[in-house]
Amino acid sequence: MPVWEFEREGEIVRVDPVPTLVVQPGAAGETLVAAAIAGLGVVSLFEDWLRPAFERGDLVPLLADWRPTFSGPFLYFPSRRLLPAPLRAFVDFIKTR
Asked: Which of 4, 61, 81, 83 could form a disulfide with 15 if both were Cys (CB 3.0 to 4.6 A apart)?
């Protein structure tokens, strides 16, 4: 389980939680949200993924002053040379954003 890191005004606090349920984000995002709504614990996901639950009142934000900053997504790929055309097009598209 990764350490949770919270930042506020340059102060960083790290918490090493002891989980009772661990769900990897990604395809299981809906499972994470459902577990939090069911009262099984706290969920840490992108705010956009949680917004519908916030708007319905199913979840409430915690530690709003301590939300981590998001510098943007990272894209990892094998090499800059000889990229397949679809990946090259995607990289070029993302770079323009």
From this structure: 4
Q: Which domain holds residue 66?
A: 4-95
pLDDT digits (tens, 9 = 90+) for 45-60: 888 889 999 999 999 9
Is 43 in contact with 36 (CB distance < 8 Å)?
yes
Question: Are 8 and 64 contacting, i.e. CB atoms less than 8 angstroms apart?
Answer: no
pLDDT per position as a tens digit, 35-48: 899 998 888 888 88
SS3 (DSSP) at 4: strand
Q: How many domains is the chain partitioned into structurally? A: 1
